Amino acid sequence: MIATKTLELGIDVGCINKVIMFRPPGQVVSLLQRVGRSGHNVGETSKGVIIALDSIDTLISASLISLLS
């Protein structure tokens, strides 16, 4: 599944192995919501990748990921 910054993945799209986000979402809850759509089988881990276009996207992505823990 590939998601843009504004795409909400509140629909059931079936089995997803990894979510690829084109640009970082604006909030930690959005990141959790999108990545959480992957790995819905027992024993699986949710996986996601953020594609950053510039240094600002990279900084935002790093900040969001650091806030997850």
Structural overview:
The chain has 69 residues and is an alpha/beta fold. 32% of the residues lie in helices and 16% in strands. Strands 1-2-3 form a three-stranded parallel sheet. Helix 1 links the parallel strand 2 and strand 3. The longest helix has 14 residues. It is globular, with a radius of gyration of 12 Å.
Please state the CA-atom Rg, rounded to the nearest Å: 12 Å
Helix content: 25-40%
Q: What separation lies between the terminal Cα atoms? A: 24 Å
Largest sheet: 3 strands, parallel
C-alpha geometry:
globular
Order of helices and strands: EEHEH
* Strand residue content: 15-25%
Separate helix tally: 2
Q: Look at the helices and sheets and give the structural class.
A: alpha/beta
Strand tally: 3
What is the quaternary state of this protein? single chain
The low-pLDDT segments are none
Average pLDDT figure: 83
Q: Give, in spatial order, the strands making up the sheet with the most strands.
A: 1-2-3
Quickly describe the structure.
The chain is α/β, with parallel strands linked by helices and 69 residues long. The chain has helices at 28-35, 55-68; strands at 2-4, 19-22, 48-51.
